[in-house]
From TrEMBL:
It comes from Adhaeribacter arboris. The keyword Transcription regulation applies. This is HTH araC/xylS-type domain-containing protein. The keyword Cell inner membrane does not apply. Residues 1-63 form the HTH araC/xylS-type domain. GO terms for molecular function: DNA-binding transcription factor activity; sequence-specific DNA binding. The lineage of its organism: Bacteria, Pseudomonadati, Bacteroidota, Cytophagia, Cytophagales.
Length: 70
């Protein structure tokens, strides 16, 4: 999970992630889905959306503060 979090801005393929985890793609996918509770691609997509949403919230928050300050 740490590898995925750190590399959300790169191309995260099943082959790459399973190699990093020292599993075959088949076994890694099965283990990931069993432990995390969702497929790998869905998890990566969700994490990317959460990261972008967090960045947007911070950006909008700073704009709101600037309006009130100025």
């Amino acid at each position: 999970m740490n590898f995925i979090e750190v590399n959300l801005d790169t191309d995260l393929s099943l082959d790459l992630i399973s190699t990093v985890a020292f599993y075959s793609p088949y076994h890694f996918y099965r283990l990931f889905k069993a432990i995390i509770g969702e497929p790998l691609n869905a998890s990566i997509s969700r994490k990317r959306i959460e990261k972008i949403a967090s960045q947007l919230m911070r950006y909008n928050y700073s704009i709101i503060l600037q309006k009130h300050i100025g």
